[in-house]
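Amino acid chain:
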Amino acid sequence: MPVRPFRHSDARALAQLFYAAIHEIAAQHYSPEQVRAWAPYEPSPDLIIGWAGDGRIMLVATDALDEPLAFGDLEADGHIDHLFCRPDQAGTGVSILLYEAIEATAHRQGLARLFVEASEPAKRFFLRQGFQVDHRRDFEVRGVPIHNYRMEKMLYLVDPDNRHQHPQAHV
């Protein structure tokens, strides 16, 4: 499964993927009211293009026919704002491949840490990738109480001179 940069032609498929992931995967952990508040409708492709054009790096994992299976992004400060996969791809390893590409990008940019606000299903995923929970965030979306988890992972650099790993300074 290749991972490549976002293309404008991906926008419709990513909008559908985003909506389906929330309504099928997150719905196993949140109430119907919470799911409707989070994603009341499929976002427009223009919104996806807007995300990709605001300075973040957006990556897309694809199948052999170059159809999007998952997407994620990395903002300049190390924030992962989105990491979603098609429901039929959950548990196949596509999200891990995509996450590894995001982390590799963060290393190339010299980032000291990654952080995310993870949903209930994403929390388990990010824990397996070495993130730690900072705190639970309780808030409202469209007047509906919902929660997620602020999580963080410190990145390590390998010193080429002595080959020791050490954490980068906190950004």
Observations:
- The two ends are 32 Å apart (CA to CA).
- The first helix runs from residue 11 to 25.
- Residues 136 and 165 are 30 Å apart (CA to CA).
